[in-house]
Amino acid sequence: MKKILLGDEAIVQGALEAGVDFVSGYPGCPSAEIGDEFLKIAGGPKGHPGLYAEWSVNEKVALEAAIGASFSGLKSLVNMKSFGINVCSDSLLPLVYTGTKAGMVIIVADDPSCWSSAQSEQDSRGYAYLSHIPMLEPSDPQECRDFTKLGFELSEKFNLPVVLRITTRVAHQRMPVEFNKVDRRPQKSGEFVKNPLQFSTMPPRVLEMKKELLDKLEKIKAYAGKLKINKIVGDPTPHNFGIVASGVAYLYVLEALKELALDTPILKVNLFYPLADNTISKFIKDLKKVLVVEELEGYLEKEINAIAKDANPKLQVFGKALLPKIGELDVEKVCLALAKVAGKKFKKNIMKQLSLPKRTARLCEGCPYWYVFPVIKRIAPEGTIFGGDIGCNMIAGLLPHNMQDYLFSMGASLGISHGIKKSTKQKVISIMGDGTFFHAGIPALVNAVYNKSNPLVVILDNRITAMTGLQQNPGMGKTGMGENTEELKIEEIAKACKVKHVKVLDPANVKEFEDAIKEFLDKEEVSVIICRRICALLAKRQKQ
Amino acid sequence: MQAQTFNIIISGVGGQGVITLLSLIDTAAFIEGYNVKSSELHGLSQRGGSVEVHVRFGKKVDSPLIPFGSADLIMSLEMLEGLRELARAGKNTKFLVNEYCLPFQGSLTKEEIKAHFKQIGDRLHLIAAFDICKEKLQNEVVSTIYLLGYAVHKKLIPLKKESVIKAIESTVPEKYRELNIKAFQLAYD
Lengths: 544, 189
Prior knowledge:
The complex is a heterodimer of chains A (544) and B (189).
Chain A: E1 2-6, H1 7-18, E2 22-25, H2 32-41, E3 52-53, H3 59-71, E4 76-81, H4 82-98, E5 104-110, H5 126-131, E6 135-136, H6 141-158, E7 162-167, H7 168-171, E8 173-178, H8 196-199, H9 205-227, E9 231-233, E10 241-246, H10 249-260, E11 266-269, E12 271-273, H11 277-284, E13 289-293, H12 299-311, E14 316-318, H13 331-342, H14 369-379, E15 385-388, E16 406-407, H15 412-423, E17 428-433, H16 434-450, E18 456-461, H17 490-496, E19 501-505, H18 510-521, E20 527-532, H19 536-543
Parallel strand pairs in A: 2-3, 2-4, 4-5, 5-7, 6-7, 10-11, 10-13, 13-14, 15-16, 15-17, 17-18, 18-20, 19-20
Antiparallel strand pairs in A: 1-8, 6-12, 9-11
Helix pairs in contact in A: 1-2, 1-6, 3-4, 10-13, 11-12, 14-18, 15-16
Chain B: E1 6-13, H1 18-31, E2 35-39, E3 50-58, E4 73-76, H2 79-84, E5 94-98, H3 110-117, E6 124-127, H4 129-137, H5 143-153, H6 161-171, H7 174-186
Parallel strand pairs in B: 1-4, 4-5, 5-6
Antiparallel strand pairs in B: 1-3, 2-3
């Protein structure tokens, strides 16, 4: 079968073909469509009865859920955006030591140029070095499908989890993808067979595990060479000059070669870690010059410099000296670098730039936050510090609101405001969404109460995780698969955390909201205001 | 079928239907047997900010992003967002722009935008799709589909009418299908 698929959809297809049983994750851009697609087809009369999928509370528990499934013999997939791997890394590192039982693929979606990311322009490939986890990098949706299958194959063969690292231009790229239709999966039940020798990292066993892990990586390198996972593309006759490329940058290289009428051979690196150094040695052995084309960090460039020391000490390696470390690549940037190394002329074809007013993101029409931000800004005394958090409420930092004095990571609005309250006499208001509160806000709240701090926390409960495209969260009484479940009330959690001053209100009742802010800002203990009003997009969807 | 890759940039404001349009062109080109590649943006970039997506079809397409200056057509659902694309246009790039403004603080007026557009002369097709759809169909949301109809009718996009209609039939949810086909046909009247 052939159909136009988005990179994220192609991953779902590849996983289905590989026989995935268990899917967990946390929504983020550009990976959210993976979980969304799985949830459309998981369970139920129309879907695959044998497929389970969930939105977990955060990426750490998502990974841990998948570990439980894998240890019980079910094939699992975990999906998250770049920063998710930071959150789950605490369990990721031991997982690579214990290894998996049934196959596991972890999708990590980076966002070069930060189209939909605050925090940092993260290159998650660095985690391969930190954790020793094998990492595949597709360039397009066809490879998203193929490499997801390959990831499961490698995982099953070597009992290791495998990361599929994608970027925005891969996840949100569409093309016709060849795939096999998958039958409905029947119900399947796993079994956890006790084996502490594999599953418990208790020392001194943990050091033996490390040895086993390093041995596995050598075997994967050899297997990758045999399977030709990394590919040499183009003219096989001897050349002086070659290119090493990975991810979507490989596609820009193909385009740039056409543009400059070059037939330079390319080594396409598909398995970033462990890097099959033999394949690279062979490729660079007779070259005089090599250009490494990779987005963000110069990891491959460093590897090639190291390999060249033995394989070809005179080789000139070009990479980040000609290509930016900041922002995504494109055909022009690659053309410029390529022309320089190949000694060709390239003239950029662009018209003069107009300086036009910038149109930034804004709250949707009817968004409940339109009630919240202006009131907080008006009521808070001059000099009040506004702590920002991840989600739609990030828009507080843009015009016309302009009320965000710091922005870090999920839940950090509160963690940091506690520190400010302890260090100064200033007023601080943290603003976070309901999804963020469940994800990472609760420990910060416990910490603030326990350590006798007194920031004001305004939780914007719009009844859904909205920014990433309306995903269910524990506050809704519905699971990702649409089943009824316990509705976790934020006010009850806050009270259980011994917050003395808790108020739930509809921010459309402006007077009530104003009074609550005034009253709570002067308290000597932590206080929480929950602004409960449904997301305008969700309300519209419910009407349809 | 044309041998050279055809490049379209679609721009607009998040929420206007840029991705729907991309998906329809992708599907129609695929129906005609072309190789297709496109690139889009979701998430924060969709929340009412400027959105720019790329669609390419031809015999063999590699990059999902169009090289600077190589767009054959720039379709814009909003005037200022169309003007913004001048930076990406080449000497022969044609523009199909919805005569419609979504203003914001500090934005340009319609007249100012039109004055800037003068430099590309008759390569600009400025079409009042919003007003036409509102008047004829009492629904302005489908003005994107009207623009697509116009582009195909005036051969600004080398795709067949039948393939686009098939694409609408296979991608648009049933209850909006008839309205969308009407909007597409309206451009032929």
